[in-house]
User: Fold this.
Amino acid sequence: MCGRFVLKSSLPEITAFFGIPYVPAPDEPGGRIGTPRYNVAPGTKILAVGQRDGQRTLRPLKWGLVPSWAKDASIANKLVNARAEGVESKPSFRAAIRKRRVLVPADGWYEWAPARPGERTKRPFFFTRTDGKMAALAGLWEFWRPAGDEDSEGLRTACLLTTEPNAVAATVHDRMPVTIDPADWDAWLDPETPLQDVLGLLRPAPDGVVQAWPVSTAVSRVGNDGPELIERHEDAPNSA
Assistant:
């Protein structure tokens, strides 16, 4: 799975990297979109790159998918990630995988390895690209409005897609987020791309593209945030 990630790049850096022709204003007052975040968690706003009228766009979405047919928004807690295998046939994702795909900018992500003998907690690791560039995580988005409430602004939500791990990720966890190569961004974002071509992009990152190192268990607490969370920490303590 992918339950936390990092986005420390600035809005100008993000828009330049993804070829977006404008820099959007920060999120609504009180939000944190556009500021460095080292412990992005489900239930919060994330940035997503989409496509409209042939141009890439950037917008905030809430992390945790709420399908359009859902009775209430609480289902988002269960739909943070979507397994790539069979995603095209699962009711929660089959519409979005065909027409509502996004790229989620990330400077890296966390995974937790099983606790070692004598330890009480799982060991967190930080994953990032070996070339230092941002990763484009594969995501799906949906729009939801409460039934019968046409005046509601509704919710725009998203989930991340996961797949089997590559060699590096397999040393820590049995899943990893799908990352989309820049050469495939247009195909991923274009709603007219044939489904079989889309499904062909749901694969692990090639070996050598991703690296990982252990970090402090402080990242396990959602309230903790700061650049120290991604620093190498060989002897992480047993509790956050």
About this structure: The CA atoms of residues 66 and 123 lie 30 Å apart.
